[in-house]
Automatic annotation (TrEMBL):
Compositional bias segments (type: Low complexity): 34-46
Protein source organism: Paenibacillus favisporus
Segment forming the signal sequence: 1-21
Keywords per UniProt: Signal
Record-linked InterPro entries: Bact_solute-bd_prot1 (IPR050490)
Location of the region described as Disordered in the Swiss-Prot/TrEMBL record: 25-49
Protein name per UniProt: Aldouronate transport system substrate-binding protein
Highest taxon listed in the record's lineage: Bacteria
């Protein structure tokens, strides 16, 4: 009897194992809901489903104003259900905080060594976890469980992105890349004003000064009044130069002097230096002070509540901003006649190059607790997000508050070269050089929609993207929904996609060191106030040397040594 029972059990086990083996084929990412059943102990398939439930403990922020559909919450929503359905993963939150409390909460979790199984964190938080040996090595997990799309995003960043997350050949976090174009400030200029005055776009600082003066003195708006502004600057909440897409910042004027404030750089001897304290920055401030005194820059620089009204009211001729500025100035296209803003990689330095300060190739990172038994579970959740989010948006899944407000481990992934690739593909498509059916959209989330829209909106000549060469009358809803993005890509993205004299400058370090925690706010305040006084004429250029001395003594020297150590 005992033997018979064992034979029966053996037969049942064989049937079960055979059934599981029959499901062990690896599906393609295009199969959608067709997933592989895998065991909790080993699940390399990027979209494989666990045979038994696996629980992952997470943390995240929640906007206090978020509104969920009836009966739904951050712990119980369509995205949680979708993850359970696809992977048999149960998502549990250890805690949920408001965005304003996030830094304090995650810092406490790090210091008490009480991390969740996985989280999306910033660079400083990631590096701190790495320093305290709290993170899992994700090298093998990424290679076996990262989806093709996720790998494409990572590979688009090249060595610059790899250096951010790899240590001794080990991948300690999964970065969420963002388009590098977002960190590059360009010169946006009224092309219709240039044409009216018979001028060319200014390539260097001397030409920039001359054009700004003409915009002020030669009545480019034709109203018979001397009421126009040459160059718009940042408002009172802005900065003269930043480390990212600094809308209205004067970054390119600094860069024309090869000055990169707020960046950590190496000098000619290989020593780490702070860009804001270098002689080139003093020279740039001197130039800006002269331009401000001559009235070439808005007199209400750093005083206005908002710089945008100057542009929309047709009173400004030049400002600086990143590729996505086409979204910001969208209302300018509705004017009669519409304002024709074009973007250029100007002004150039004396050597004929345009130096662009670049933001970090990623600012958000997926990290996994080294004690979590199923690190691939975190990657599966990311794989699903980047594969299916466009479909969810289209179908209205979790509309309130949407993926950004409710999806576990949410962050935005993109290709570093997404804008350049999109510009190139759209240029060829609108001229009939490529067919949509031949385009691989698998790692370009918005390109298909961009192609459909540009075909309907673009008029002859097909290689001229001035605003009058778009169908502003017959474009219908596309004017509001798609034109700002298309202008951003085709006008704002053009310099980075086509110019060959752009030199990209990256900071050695984008995080926060120990001394920065207590000293950085005061040092930034000192820098911002000193630079503003010099430019606006309330302090002489010699005060820059005093600023450098104070900066070093008040913690700057210590921070420099820490950055040098962190960036090795």
């Amino acid at each position: 009897m005992k033997v018979t029972r064992m034979l029966v059990l053996g037969l049942l086990l064989t049937i079960v194992m055979t059934s599981m083996a029959a499901c062990s084929g690896t599906p393609t990412e295009d199969q959608g809901n067709d997933v592989t059943v895998t065991s909790p102990s080993s699940s390399p398939d990027p979209f494989g489903k666990y045979s038994e439930p696996v629980t992952i403990h997470l943390v995240r922020t929640l906007d206090p104003n978020s509104k969920f559909d009836d009966g739904k919450s951050i712990e119980n929503n369509e995205f949680i259900d979708e993850i359970k359905k696809q992977f048999n993963i149960d998502v549990k939150y250890d805690w949920v905080s408001s965005p304003s409390d996030w830094d304090q909460k995650i810092s406490l979790a790090i210091s008490s060594n009480n991390l969740p199984d996985a989280a999306i964190v910033n660079l400083t938080q990631f590096k701190t976890m790495q320093k305290y040996d709290q993170l899992a090595d994700l090298t093998d997990v990424f290679n076996t469980s990262g989806s093709d799309m996720l790998k494409n995003f990572y590979n688009s960043g090249g060595d610059t992105l790899k250096q951010l997350v790899e240590s001794d050949g080990k991948m300690m976090a999964i970065p969420a890349p963002s388009p590098k174009a977002s960190g590059m400030n360009e010169m946006w200029i009224r092309q219709d004003w240039l044409d009216k005055l018979g001028l060319q776009a200014p390539k260097n600082l001397d030409e920039l000064k001359a054009v700004a003066k003409a915009f002020i003195e030669q009545d480019p708006d034709g109203n018979g009044k001397k009421d126009t502004i040459g160059i718009v600057g940042p408002s009172k909440s802005g900065v003269l130069s930043g480390t990212d897409g600094n809308l209205y910042g004067l970054d390119p004027i600094f860069a024309a002097h090869k000055s990169f404030p707020s960046y950590w750089l190496k000098d000619g001897s290989g020593n780490v230096v702070y860009g804001s304290t270098q002689p080139e920055t003093k020279q740039a401030l001197q130039t800006l002070a002269e331009m401000y005194k001559e009235g070439l820059i808005d007199k209400e620089l750093l005083v206005r509540d908002d710089s945008l009204p100057l542009i929309l009211d047709g009173k400004a001729g030049i400002f600086f901003g990143p590729w996505w500025t086409g979204y910001t100035i969208a209302d300018a296209y509705k004017k009669n006649p519409p304002q024709d803003w074009q973007a250029y990689a100007y002004p150039q330095a004396d050597d004929g190059n345009f130096y662009a300060h670049m933001s970090a190739p990623a600012s958000q990172f997926l990290v996994v607790n080294k004690n979590f038994k199923y690190p691939e579970a975190a990657l599966k959740i990311i794989n699903l997000l980047i594969r299916d989010e466009p479909k969810w948006v289209e179908n209205g899944l979790g509309k309130n508050p949407g993926t950004g407000g409710a999806y576990p481990l949410f962050t935005v992934f993109d290709n570093l070269n997404e804008i350049e690739v999109s510009h190139d593909m759209l240029s060829k498509y609108v001229k009939g050089e490529i067919d949509m059916n031949a385009v691989d959209f698998s790692s370009h989330k918005l390109l298909k929609d961009d192609m459909n829209a540009i075909k309907k909106l673009k008029k002859e000549p097909l290689d001229d993207y001035s605003i009058n060469n778009w169908d502003l009358d017959g474009g219908g809803d596309l004017i509001a929904s798609n034109l700002p993005r298309l202008v951003s890509i085709m006008v704002g993205g053009r310099p980075l996609a086509t110019d060959t004299n752009i030199k990209e400058v990256y900071s050695l370090y984008y995080g926060q060191t120990n001394t920065m925690t207590s000293r950085w706010a005061n040092l930034q305040k000192l820098e911002k106030e000193t630079f503003a006084k010099i430019v606006m004429g309330s302090a002489p250029i010699e005060s820059f040397d005093e600023f450098v001395d104070k900066w070093n003594k008040q913690g700057g020297e210590k921070i420099l040594s820490e950055v040098a150590e962190m960036s090795q």
